[in-house]
Amino acid sequence: MASVALRSVSKSFGHVPVINDVNLEIADGELVVFVGPSGCGKSTLLRLIAGLVPVGAGDVVIDGEVVTDIPASKRGIAFVFQSYALYPHMTIARNIGFALETLGLSRQEIDAKVAEVAVTLKIDHLLARRPRELSGGQRQRVAIGRALVRQPEVFLFDEPLSNLDSDLRMEMRMEIAKLHANLAATMIYVTHDQVEAMTLADRIVVLNKGCIEQIGTPQQLYHAPQNRFVAGFIGSPRMNFTAVSANVSGASCHLMGPGNLSLDVAITGPGVPAEIGVRPEALSIAAARQGKLTGTLERLEDLGHEHLAYVRIAPETAWSVRLPNSLARTALGTSIGLDWRFEDLFLFDKDGHRLDHSLSHERSAAANGALA
Amino acid sequence: MSTRIKRRSGAYYRAMRRVRQIALGCVTALLLFYVLFPYYWAIVSSTKQGAQLYESVLLPALDFRHYKELFRDANFATSIFNSLCVAISTTALSLGLGTLAAYALGRLNFPERRSLLLTVLMISIFPQVVVLSGMFELIRWFGLYNRVWSLVFAYLIFTLPFTTWVLTSFIREFPRELEEAAIMDGCSHWRILTSILLPLMGPALVSTGLLAFILAWNEFLFALTFTLTEGSRTVPVAIGLLAGNSRYEYPFGPIMAASVTVTLPLIALVLFFQRKIVAGLTAGAVKG
Q1: pLDDT, tens digit, for every residue of B2-34?
Q2: Which of B184, B199, B200 sits opposite A72 (nearest CB)?
Q3: Which string of DSSP letters, residue by residue, matches B130-142?
Q4: R_g over Cα of chain B
Q5: What would the pLDDT profile of A48-74 be if each residue is shown by its tens digit?
Q6: Chain A nearest CA to B190, separation (Å)
Q7: Do A98 and B185 count as a contact with CB atoms less than 8 A apart?
Q8: pTM score, two decimals?
Q9: Does A60 touch chain B (CB under 8 A)?
Q10: Which letter, b or e, does each residue of A118-146 get, where b requires 16 or more Cβ atoms within 10 Å of its Cβ?
Q11: Structural domains of chain A ordered from first start
Q12: What does the domain layout of chain B look like in residue ranges?
């Protein structure tokens, strides 16, 4: 088993910088998930670790050893590709055993190992078939089997479940969690799916434009995001934001904004709030002019297990509210109030950094409580 | 408000469909006639004797004397053998070299790649006549004049560019992740080429190989220029230089018999590889 570290890693394609000075330490046996919008460089970062893309500057360290110049196949790494990348002209058995063939193992050894892996993944009845005769879920299992058979120290997954339908995705997600628990191997997992990130990760790395925005446990990212980007990226529907103007006098601060927003907050650190954010699930509906914000109810969505309401608080800003029960259709177009508990309020300065206010520690305590 | 669309009765559209079907049938028949008639006429003429040739009878006379004479002729057998040697060697060489070049041009990144690809394309647009005299000198210098191998050497100049070009575009469309998977599995470039790419390139290799074979088999100008004696002639030249019994007789019948005979291997090849060719044409459309 092995730890993985990135030391000031950068990479550009031509003149386009893709990864900017990334530093990251991943402990032995940890499952770390890279998330970020498309084009943020998460797949490239994974390929840099694998050695499929040469590093521009900096070092990749695996198990305390610098592997920057060591070829991909000699790094003790297995890679599971998004498209599975099974060899179409080979049987499943040969697909799984191909790496061992390249290593020069004997036929019997290969067959024994392939059979063992196939039983673990419940694909032993498919060994004689070819990839095109398999369903998506089965192909995914084969792709994982191909990684498993090499007994790597680090597993890299590049959006492995994105080609599956939602039922299978859930099933395979559990399989991967089980696999991680059983093998206790280091795993790095790239996804754009928040549910996968939140449920699988020991720690999540949020990437944006080739830089790390924040590293933390799922709970830390949700309850105590360091900046506006992370706050907006983690959570679905995303956090509601609106720009505010602040009147600072000492530690107290008066915020004014759209939707008749008028709030007093106590800032505990330096910085002036320029924007506030509240998660849809922290909002509740109040009577008009009774809440902290007032807006017009614009749209209702019934998802069965939850209900979403969209409230327009300014011509260009609508806030989403997650509710357990539907509102009356007749309320559409009327003016309603939005309310929230003070500890659910996020404040950001004009550069997007999150500011602490007098009640934010309760939220952090909740995050740490969830950790313990 | 919706725009009002003018609509006619169902019977009208049914009739139109019939008309279109009939028109399509007619055009197809015309095209088939255009493509097949010359070959059919060659077969018909090859079975006619002497004066019969000058009667416009569409049915074959079924007299195979010309074919019997043809197969008794040792020179014709030699030229068929020469043609086979040339066409097979040209195909094999251009596929081998073309695959290696295509892998480099399609996958490996090096700065001169674009200009190199353009050069390859440039070479293939020169008319044969332009390179003829230069090629003649080259062949003399290499001491290949009047040898069969001079033709392999000369044909590579037009088969290699198009094989390289076609195979390069095929390799470019090849899924990148498949190659990355092979790299993770510890494959060298050579092993990726032989174990992963080549088995999957079968259809592309067959289609380009077949084209190269047909080009080399049918080529006339180079073959006429670079060979002198009967022993080193290929089939097209041998047919072109067939002589009659007297200088006043044009050996139309034997020429047709020979033409029909040398077309048969090509037809056999195409039919044999037919399914592979179709697979090659649609290869990019199907996701693995």
Answers
A1: 678 888 889 999 999 999 999 999 999 999 999
A2: B184
A3: HHHHHHHHHHHHT
A4: 25
A5: 999 999 999 999 999 999 999 999 888
A6: 12
A7: yes
A8: 0.80
A9: no
A10: bebbebbebbeebbeebeebbbbbbbbbb
A11: 4-229 (3.40.50.300), 238-371 (2.40.50.140)
A12: 10-54, 65-285
